[in-house]
Amino acid sequence: MLLRFFNQGYRIWAFAVILLFVVIGTFIQFKFVKLEESRNALEATVARLQLANNLLVAERGTNGNEKNVDDDTIVIYNRVPKTASTSFVNVAYDLCKRNGFNVLHLNVTGNLHVMPIPDQARFVYNVTHWNAKKPGLYHGHVAFIDFDKFGSSQRPIYLNLLRKPLDRLVSYYYFLRFGDNYRPHLIRRKHGDKMTFDECVKRKQSDCDPVNMWLQIPFLCGHMPECWEPGNQWALDQAKHNLASRYLLVGVTEQLQEFISVLEATLPTFFRGAVKHFQSSKKSHLRKTNLKREPSNETVAEIMKSKVWKMETELYEYALDQFEYVKKKMGSNRCSN
Ligand SMILES: *[C@@H]1O[C@H](CO)[C@@H](O)[C@H](O)[C@H]1NC(C)=O
Ligand SMILES: *[C@@H]1O[C@H](CO)[C@@H](O)[C@H](O)[C@H]1NC(C)=O
Ligand SMILES: *[C@@H]1O[C@H](CO)[C@@H](O)[C@H](O)[C@H]1NC(C)=O
User: Where are the transmembrane segments (predicted)?
Assistant: First the structure.
């Protein structure tokens, strides 16, 4: 009886021990599976974090301040004298280091504003092949140069600023006599001549001849001889044609900040941060002709009779209309209030 119990007891014990092993075994296996799962989850998280980090680095790369090695854009600003061109070019000089582009001055011999055709060819070749200076902004007092004519595969982006023709002429007239705040000690061509613009018009002298206003049309028209013939209708049409099809943007001096604002949105490689910079340094940038007097109503009426004034004003208003349209389409009157 006792033995039987033992026998039976032994079997129960053996069964219990085996059951225990099975339970423990299953438990350990279960734990391993759990561990494996959490390891996989951890690995996935790490991978996600690494990816996010890589994206962050890539983004910083494109927003960074290093030279834009992949950008070979060429911008040409063929500036017209006395249109606030110095103020605008100084903004470019201030930003070029930060934004990683080059600013190059194109020194046209004499004050001719046109280049002989071999010089144009050399210029086109040099500008398009000089990779060390890309991206680059060129500025100079030179008429529009048509890169297509020279078989160039790269077209530059053209920019310009126009000013009300009579304002520009009056500004130039006093600039030659009294200089400006930019280089106050430089003696100008007509230094010492105290004649006002009104007197000049009354005496019909050459410095205030309306023919002198024939400048913005030829700058946009280009190097054809007709471009430089005061009153030539083809020149006006060609200037409008180039403005519409060959210039990225033509602004007006009276809205310099708006011009810079559109450029910042359109060409960020060059003009990122330009508006903020211009606003904070406006005083030092604006170049003012000394002792400038507003012309009398009589003088204005006299000038307005001339064909050159009418044609130059037509181009100016054409440019202004285009510029207003560009601004409207951008929905930005942000800087006009
Ligand atoms: C441009 O060239 C003329 C003559 O070649 C020279 O006298 C003048 O100093 C130059 N101007 C600049 C800003 O380099
Ligand atoms: C362009 O002209 C400059 C100055 O004359 C010169 O230093 C440069 O090497 C030229 N670049 C090319 C590609 O011809
Ligand atoms: C000139 O004309 C404007 C309007 O065209 C007028 O407001 C202004 O008073 C005039 N100035 C003089 C000095 O007559």
Answer: 12-30
Q: Which atom of ligand 1 is nearest to the CA of 107?
A: 1
Residue 282 predicted with pLDDT over 70:
yes
pTM > 0.70: yes or no: yes
Residues with Cβ < 8 Å from 59, sequence gap 6 or more?
Answer: none
Domain at 74-336, CATH from 3.30.420.270, 3.40.50.300, 3.30.450.40, 3.40.50.1000 = 3.40.50.300
The CA–CA distances, whole Å, from 115 to 39, 121, 284, 310 equal: 73, 10, 32, 28
**Domain residues of the chain, as ranges?**
1-63, 74-336
Q: Considering 113, 139, 223, 277, which one is annotated as catalytic?
A: 139
**Confidence at residue 80, expressed as pLDDT on a 0 to 100 scale:** 95
Calpha distance 261→139 (Å, rounded) = 19
Torsion of CA 218, 224, 230, 234, to 10 degrees: -90
Query: How much distance in Å is there from the Cα of 77 to the middle of ligand 2?
Result: 19
Residue to mutate, 105, 123, 130, 131, ligand 2, most ligand atoms under 8 Å from C-beta: 130
99-143 pLDDT tens trace: 999 999 998 876 789 999 999 999 999 999 999 999 999 999 999
The reply to whether ligand 1 has any atom less than 6 angstroms from the CB of 107 is yes
Helix, strand, coil fractions of the chain, as percent rounded to 5? 60, 10, 30
Is the CB of 34 inside a 6 Å radius of any atom of ligand 2? no
